[in-house]
Amino acid sequence: MVATSDLTHAEEADITIPNFWDHKAVYDRPTVIPDKIQFLATDNYPPFVFRDPQGRLTGFNIDLSRALCQELNISCALKIKDFEVLIPALAEEEGDAIISGLSRYTSGAQDLLFTDDYLKLPARLIILNEANTDFDEQSLAGQKLAVESGTRYEAFARKFWPAADIQPVRTPAEARQAVKDGTADAHLGDGLSLSFWLRSPAADGCCRFTGGPWLEPGYFGEGMAIATRSNDPERAAALNYALRQLHQKGMYQELYLRYFPLSFY
Predict the structure, then answer these.
(1) Residue 13 scores a pLDDT above 60
(2) Is the pLDDT of residue 6 over 60?
(3) What is the Rg, in whole angstroms, of the alpha carbon atoms belonging to the chain?
(4) Is residue 118 within 8 Å of residue 61, measured between CB atoms?
(5) In angstroms, what CA-CA distances link 211 with 106, 138, 146, 168, 172?
(6) pLDDT value at residue 22
(7) What is the signed CA dihedral for 222, 227, 231, 233, rounded to 10 degrees?
(8) What is the DSSP string of the chain?
(9) Predicted confidence (pLDDT) per residue in 146-205, tens digit
(10) Among candidate residues 2, 25, 3, the one with its CA nearest the CA of residue 16
(11) Peptide bond into 213 cis (omega under 30)
């Protein structure tokens, strides 16, 4: 079973920050830096790109794209498009890079050039706050584990915890409620969504993360990256350099904590 490889802890609190870059490596600034980057995104993807109550664009990807351009000292713009036309818009040069959670396995994306991952979305377990502190997430033998039926979370649980009492339910909400009600000992689900639920009125302070995070290849290994045209390697290289610099300078950590105050790592 594979958990995320590189994690760092914020000094001011016991908060885990994901690290997808080698902090010991030294990266040279590319010799060719574009004059500008026109990002393409969709605006209904909270907390990454969305509109606040005043209609202003905000989100993790918005602030990340701005920080990338500041690091490269170039101009930056963002154009909103429907998700299904992002790839055609990039091909037609309406923009230079897609920053909208585009999967490498989306139809047409195989011809694009992706940067390094800047965020991965791991699976996490939640249990009741008062659950036994000796809860063993490595075996879960005999434990009632609620999972959304037919998902990669159920498939993962059945493969790696064969001795657990797997309890498939229709929705993540039902699985979370099962833990809250005590009809399940734990729930395996999307760490990002769970991090927001744990702080919500619906959770009512019932539960906490335990174990993981899990980024098992074939289940949860695909990360979020920025896509550029395949004939634009200079722009991709510049973005990769800027992503690494943002992490080394602490800006990535600042953005992560701004949007994910309860770390899902």
Answers:
(1) no
(2) no
(3) 20
(4) no
(5) 31, 8, 15, 20, 19
(6) 76
(7) -80
(8) --B-S-EEEETTTTEEEE--S-TT---PPPS---SEEEEEE-S-BTTTBEE-TTS-EESHHHHHHHHHHHHHT-EEEEEE--GGGHHHHHHTTS-SEE-S---TTSTTGGGEEE---SEE--EEEEEETTS-TT--TTT-TT-EEEEETTSHHHHHHHHH-TTSEEEEESSHHHHHHHHHHTSSSEEEEEHHHHHHHHTSTTTTT-EEEEEEEE--TTTT--EE--EEETT-HHHHHHHHHHHHHHHHTTHHHHHHHHH-SS---
(9) 999 999 999 999 999 999 999 999 999 999 999 999 999 999 999 999 999 999 999 999
(10) 3
(11) yes
Residue type, 201: P
Residue linked to tokens 């794209």: 65
**Token pair in block for residue 69:** 């351009």
Inter-residue contact 175 to 185 (CB < 8 Å): no
HSE-up of residue 196 (Cα within 13 Å, Cβ side): 10
The pair of structure tokens assigned to 254 is 């600042």
Chain centre to alpha carbon of residue 151:
18
Query: Which amino acid belongs to residue 52?
Result: D
Q: How far apart are CA 43 and CA 100, in angstroms?
A: 9
Cα(184)–Cα(207) distance, rounded to whole angstroms?
A: 12
Measured torsion, CA atoms of residues 13, 187, 106, 265, in degrees rounded to the nearest 10: 10
